Amino acid sequence: MISRIDLRGAAFPEGGIDRDLLPRAELDVEAALEKVRPICDDVRHRGTAALIDYAHRFDGVAIERVRVPAAALERALAELDPAVRAALEESIRRARLVHREQRRTDHTTQVVPGGTVTERWVPVERVGLYVPGGRSVYPSSVVMNVVPAQEAGVDSMAVASPPQAEFGGLPHPTILAACALLGVDEVYAAGGAQAVAMFAYGTEDCRPVALVTGPGNIFVAAAKRLLKGRIGIDAEAGPTEIAILADATADPVHVAADLISQAEHDPLAASVLVTDSEELAAAVEKELDVQLAATKHVEDRIRPALSGRQSGIVLVDGLEQGLAVVDAYAAEHLEIQTEDAAAVAARVRNAGAIFVGAFAPVSLGDYAAGSNHVLPTGGCACHSSGLSVQSFLRGIHVVDYSREALAEIAGHVVTLAEAEDLPAHGAAVKARFDWKVPPSK
């Protein structure tokens, strides 16, 4: 069911591994751009009417309005299963503990007497938070988007999630309940590219936002790419992925369970095991068959995901080669199930999040570790980070120089301006000294 890639004995070129050797889903965001462009243009020009039409076309739902009434949010929270509410409250509590520590403080550096540069950290004024809804319901994604935005000090936030025919055209009630728990009262029944366009351009009901965050399907990713610049984005998140670096000490039951846990998200989800133990590989293959016999979503999600080109077992010669492979892969989620897992994890450079040892499965991070589960996919973890308080903050430099402090450096400023053939830059400094610039020290 799951393929093998044998890299044992391979001589990796200096500078790293060819990523094309590793499992990866085919995800053509560029092709999807042409599909989402007319949708986004339509929302720009017709606003709410376009959103209502797309709800009927894509979601099979007839709705009269897009904004979720306050009464629906209150009802969803009142009717929420007490056990689910308790779990969400604990997830929120732990996420706040972690994200509150990420908040940066302003810092002033005295460059010279009378000359300072202060870095102020200012939250984005208004954000749009996307919560997917399709094969599964993701109240956890409400938590992961809203908590860092709140801890950053964002004043205005709106949540969008696809309308559901089963719930009268509203988003799933558990998503609505999570919004209510977090005090978010601006929620829209809108999904896909049209929701991103709503955030970017605004409609009669929804004011435009400055930043859009949250995972989604390929059309959400394409809309983010199309509208980036008009809005800021967190990332073009694609199908979820897990990589597990394991040696002979790993328990094949744990490894198989974790591979399946990500495969149940989507047929395009990626599950990759990197190991130097052929015995572990064989045991995991057998265990996959055993566990699939006792789980849901096998034929529509898990089996296609595990048998797809994006998943596989990669055999390597040893730990060093294994580390090279997982760094090249740059997984959204990376589990380390090896001897001395903490030491091995400390050597990893590229991953969205790292899960250390036998008792830190990705599922923990999905819900209640306190970490954020909105993470870079498709190898983007080599240059991008997961969602955090920093995602919602902007650093602004405040430059404050006295006349004396400017006079001290003015000669160098004029010299550099003239070296760049920008004499007016130098003139702007000279004007403050009656065109007489003292030489810089």
Helix content: 40-55%
Order of helices and strands: EHHHHEEEHEHEHEHEEHEHHEHEHEHEHH
Radius of gyration: 26 Å
Q: Overall pLDDT, averaged? A: 94
Largest sheet: 6 strands, parallel
Uncertain segments? none
Number of distinct beta strands: 14
How do the strands of the widest beta sheet line up side by side? 1-11-10-9-12-13
SS element count, helices: 16
What is the first-to-last residue Cα distance? 72 Å
Strand fraction: 15-25%
- Quickly give the structural class: alpha/beta
3D shape: globular
In short:
This protein is of the alpha/beta class and 441 residues long. The protein has helices at 29-46, 48-59, 70-78, 82-100, 139-152, 173-181, 192-201, 218-227, 252-263, 278-292, 298-307, 319-329, 341-345, 362-367, 403-419, 423-430; strands spanning 4-6, 107-112, 115-123, 126-130, 156-161, 187-189, 211-213, 232-233, 241-246, 270-275, 312-315, 333-337, 353-356, 393-401.
Task: Give a quick set of tags describing it.
14 strands; 441 residues; single chain; 16 helices; 5-stranded parallel beta sheet
Summarize the structure in words.
- By secondary structure, the chain is α/β, with parallel strands linked by helices.
- The chain has 16 helices and 14 strands.
- The protein has helices at 29-46, 48-59, 70-78, 82-100, 139-152, 173-181, 192-201, 218-227, 252-263, 278-292, 298-307, 319-329, 341-345, 362-367, 403-419, 423-430; strands at 4-6, 107-112, 115-123, 126-130, 156-161, 187-189, 211-213, 232-233, 241-246, 270-275, 312-315, 333-337, 353-356, 393-401.
- The strands form 3 sheets. The protein has a 6-stranded parallel sheet, with helices on both faces. Strands 6-5-4-7-8 form a 5-stranded parallel sheet, sandwiched between helices.
- Helix 1 crosses helix 7 (192-201), helix 1 crosses helix 8 and helix 7 packs parallel to helix 8.
- It is globular.
- The mean pLDDT is 94.
